[in-house]
Amino acid sequence: MDKLINQFEFGLFFWQVLIFVGLILLLRKFAWKPILDAVNDREEGIKNALLAAENAKKDMLNLKSDNEKLLAEARAERDLMMKEAREIKEKMIADAKSEAQAQGEKMIESAKASIESEKNAAMAELKNQVSSLSLEIAETLLKGELSNKEAQTKLVEKMLGDAKLN
Fold it and tell me: Of 32, 147, 155, 161, which cross-links 28 as Cys (Cβ 3.0–4.6 Å)?
């Protein structure tokens, strides 16, 4: 360092300072401003990107809450539709049961009426058979009773006695 101080020349120093100041002025005019503009543009671009990211994040949150609302509405609508479907199913089942019961009661009434008419027909047939059998028995008895004259007389007297009593 001593050697540097001992060999100091003012002229050389002056030219070096002058060249340095000129270089600074040239750099300031041609390089410093474009560099600062590029740095400022970059900084502005980063700020815009951060704002865009923040806005996108807010939009995502809004979309998420909207999606949750839509999902909740869809679930509520689905539950309502399922409830209505169950009610319709139960109504259809109840209607089918009541219709089947009504048809069953009609069939029972029809069967009862059919049984009653068949019973009446059977009773009439039975009465007819009993009356014809009774007539045949009475005819046979009367033929046997009326074949002899003494028996006829007794029968007529008995009938006359019965007729007076009544």
Answer: 32
CB-CB contact of 141 with 150 (8 Å): no
At a CB cut-off of 8 Å and minimum separation 6, what does 146 contact?
Answer: 152, 155
- Give the tens place of pLDDT for each residue, 100-143: 999 999 999 999 999 999 999 999 888 888 888 878 777 777 77
* Tokens read off for 149: 């004259």
Please tell me the distance from the alpha carbon of residue 110 to that of residue 118, in angstroms, as a whole number.
12
Tally the residues of the chain. Answer: 166
Kindly give, in sequence order, each residue whose CB lies less than 8 Å from that of residue 152, ignoring residues fewer than 6 positions away: 145, 146
| Cα 111 to Cα 50, 57, 105, 131, 139, distances in angstroms | 89, 79, 10, 30, 41
